[in-house]
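Fill in residues.
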């Protein structure tokens, strides 16, 4: 059996040939990506802890009730609808920008998300959402029907549409989180006892 040696920097056990070839360092330490590995481990642990939180458990239950019950979204209390619409907006814009929010089923919640941002006092985010709506729909209403909504969007099937350049700074401004939306959503949930209701 080969006696493994500790890396001189991180202490992980490594093959003696690796230690000899790399001045006692493991490959992640030698190549400079040990910090990224360790941060990845810490992030996975944070994700595991978050998955057990009241916030995460409530969100999972809310999504289940919207998508897996006959009442769906309309079976939610008004406060839950607000929380759901704003959370969908946050998730979609962080994942793919305002275009993704409007082009996915989440776009049906546009007015509720806008009203929700205002109810949370998230005025900067509400202004960004309004500007994105104007870029994509001008003065037209945002259709609830996804196919109809996508048919009106100039970015649909046109990667060269000038609207992409107009959306980019709005996406970046939203990602900067000027209203601290996560904190506002948690405060709203606690004030309306949503986590306990899930």
């Amino acid at each position: 059996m080969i006696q493994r040696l500790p890396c001189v920097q991180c202490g992980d056990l490594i093959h003696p040939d690796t230690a000899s070839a790399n001045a006692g360092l493991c490959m992640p330490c030698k190549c400079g990506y040990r910090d990224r590995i360790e941060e990845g481990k810490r992030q996975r642990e944070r994700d595991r802890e978050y998955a057990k939180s009241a916030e995460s458990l409530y969100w999972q239950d809310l999504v289940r009730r919207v998508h897996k019950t006959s009442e769906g979204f309309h079976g939610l209390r008004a406060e839950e609808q607000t929380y759901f619409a704003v959370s969908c907006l946050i998730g979609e814009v962080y994942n793919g920008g305002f275009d993704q929010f409007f082009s996915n089923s989440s776009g049906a919640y546009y007015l509720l998300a806008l009203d929700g941002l205002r109810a949370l006092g998230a005025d900067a985010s509400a202004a960004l959402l309004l500007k994105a709506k104007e870029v994509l729909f001008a003065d037209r209403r945002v259709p609830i029907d996804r196919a109809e909504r996508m048919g009106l969007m100039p970015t649909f099937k046109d990667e060269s549409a000038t609207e992409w350049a107009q959306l980019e700074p709005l996406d970046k401004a939203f990602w900067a989180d000027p209203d601290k939306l996560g904190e506002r959503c948690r405060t709203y949930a606690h004030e309306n006892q949503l986590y306990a209701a899930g």
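The radius of gyration is 23 Å.
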